[in-house]
Structure formats: C-alpha cells, structure tokens
Amino acid sequence: MGIYIPTTMADHWLKLLICVIALSSTKVNVRASEMVNITLLSNAVEKGAVCLDGSPAGYHYAKGYGDGANSWMIYLPGGGWCGRKQSCIDRVKYSPMLSSTKNITQENFGAILSPNKTSNPDFYNWNRVFIRYCDGSSFMGDVKKVDPETNLHKRGSRIFTSVIDELLSKGLKDAKNVMLTGNSAGGLATILNCDRFRALVPNANMVKCVSDSGFFIHAKNLPNAAGRERTFSRVVHFHGISKFLPKSCTSRMKPGLCFFPENLVAHIKTPLFLLNSDFDKFQVINLLIYFHFLDKLHLTPYSFTIWYSTPSNMDLVI
Ligand SMILES: *[C@@H]1O[C@H](CO)[C@@H](O)[C@H](O)[C@H]1NC(C)=O
Ligand SMILES: *[C@@H]1O[C@H](CO)[C@@H](O)[C@H](O)[C@H]1NC(C)=O
Ligand SMILES: *[C@@H]1O[C@H](CO)[C@@H](O)[C@H](O)[C@H]1NC(C)=O
C-alpha cells in the first residue's frame, strides 16, 4: 500500500520558494558576457582627444563590486595600424569601427572582460574598461595639426592619457590593483604605454601590464625584415610618435625600430607579461609571408586584415 501525501497550499509555497531561490542564485554573476554602453570622453573635442575622423574618444566601463571594487583592468583592443595618408583615409572609409565612435553604442564584454565568475574567476567583478581603438597608432600618436584636406586627426596618445585621466576621477585613483592589457595592436600598445601608464596611477600598490599577441617582431634575419621595418617606420613618422618612445632606445637606433618590442622590453620598469604564440597567425601570414609576396609583385595593401588569436594558439609564452 502506497503512502498518499496530499498536495497542500504549503507544498505549493515550498516549491515556489525553492524556485525563487534557484532563480535568484542563478542570476548572480553567471552571465557569459554583457553588453556595456559606450561613454564618450567629456570635452574630448576641446581636449583634442579624438578619433581619426575627429569624433570624440570613447570607452566602455563596467563598475567593479565586492572584493573587485578597488581593482581595475584596462583593455586595449587590436585592429592593426595605418601609417600613410591613403591607408588612414581608407580606414575611416572602410573600417568605421576602428576610426570613429559615431556609430558605436555597446561592446560585448567576454573572455577576460567577462562578468561570468566561472569562466573569469579572477577578474569578473573588477572594474573593467574597454578603450575604443580609433586612432590607428596603437594609442601612441600626437600631431597637433589637422590636415584640412583629409580632416585626419592623429591623437592616439592623447586619447589614452585623457581616458585614463577621466577614469582616475571615477575611482581609478584609489585603485589597489591595476592591470593594463590588450590584444594584437592593443597588445603592442600595452607594451609601449606600460611605464607611462604606471606613472598615471602612482597610488596603486600593484600595476602590471599583460600583452596578448602584441610582440611584433622585426627579426632582421627572417624574410622581409625591411618590409616590417618600413611598416612600423611609417606609423611612427605619420603619427608623430618618436617623441613618446624611450630615449634609451631612440638614442641607439632609428625611431621606427623602437616600435618593435624586442628593442623595448629591456627598458620597461613596470612588471610586464608577454603572451605570444610562436606561430602567431597574423604575424606569419601578414608580416612574414604576405608582405613578402606583395613586395615581390609591387603591390600595396590598403589595410591590414586581422585574425584574432584563438585560445589554441595563445598557449605559448615567450
Ligand atoms: C559561465 O561560464 C561557464 C564556464 O565556462 C559556463 O559553463 C557557463 O555556461 C557560463 N554561464 C553562462 C550564463 O553562460
Ligand atoms: C544603454 O543604452 C541604452 C540605449 O541608449 C539604454 O536604454 C540603457 O538604459 C543603457 N544601459 C545602461 C546600463 O546605462
Ligand atoms: C552606421 O550604422 C548604420 C546601421 O547599422 C549603417 O547603415 C551605417 O552605414 C553606419 N555608418 C557608419 C559611418 O559606420
């Protein structure tokens, strides 16, 4: 004989309570990613902290909480460079996401910026900032004059400084732990801006720079070293970057060569971590092989094509 348990109102309430607890516990910190609105830098145009097309610099900011409230991660995305008038004009025309904030509303925060505690246990509740890359110089250029004919603005360095300055007033000045990180051209920006960034957050106990796939090699013994040197020299000259490169490097070699991490990392004082595949797809295809053949065929690419690193080729640290 079975036992008959009557369904009472109390059972219903108990089930409902269990459901509510289950739902509310899944609501906390388990999102895979989140859409974060853009914040345009205040007084960006007056400050001259503007994108290639003259639109205001911008960033996406997710506020930290809990034990992450005083920790900050600043992320610099990738997107190649433009180092000549025509390639910068083309960038404005064909890659508005990398040259303007006019059409940008939100950014999807995933991976190291993810709010998911399970997949991103170290940083999910930090203050997380994604600075828009819209200058084409790895956040390094600053030329005051705007060419009236093209209306191109070259202000990457000013964007970086002005955004950090605004973040200082939003709590970054009281941060304990700070990490500057970035991928590809943003990974290079991380290396190039690392010590300058450290100086902007003097009160932080711990500041570290983590460059993902930003170690672009000159490697003078590999094919097409001259092509790689020319690429970076153009970026350095076009965006007026020489004055921001360490004197310890520019006193020894041409400024264009001081854009290559291999000539810089020994001079960086802030802790710097490099994450780079030996077989970085972008470098192998674009900088070792692609330009080699374009040079042979006397062709010029109008812009770079970017392949983002996948986790499978990010596991080698050099
Ligand atoms: C959070 O990350 C874990 C591990 O990657 C994953 O299993 C889970 O589905 C993610 N949560 C959401 C809401 O996507
Ligand atoms: C993000 O922007 C959208 C559209 O402007 C707005 O509806 C929404 O409230 C904003 N979200 C936050 C968190 O500010
Ligand atoms: C802005 O976005 C709209 C709609 O997605 C698109 O049609 C337009 O071409 C974009 N403009 C620029 C300058 O990117």
From TrEMBL:
Database matches in Gene3D superfamilies: alpha/beta hydrolase (3.40.50.1820)
Source superkingdom: Eukaryota
Keywords from the UniProt entry: Cell wall, Cell wall biogenesis/degradation, Hydrolase, Secreted, Signal
Pfam families (UniProt xref): PAE (PF03283)
GO biological process terms held by the UniProt record: cell wall organization
A molecular function (GO) term: hydrolase activity
Top-level class of the enzyme under EC nomenclature: hydrolase
Protein family (similarity comment): Belongs to the pectinacetylesterase family.
Role this protein plays: Hydrolyzes acetyl esters in homogalacturonan regions of pectin. In type I primary cell wall, galacturonic acid residues of pectin can be acetylated at the O-2 and O-3 positions. Decreasing the degree of acetylation of pectin gels in vitro alters their physical properties.
Record-given protein name: Pectin acetylesterase
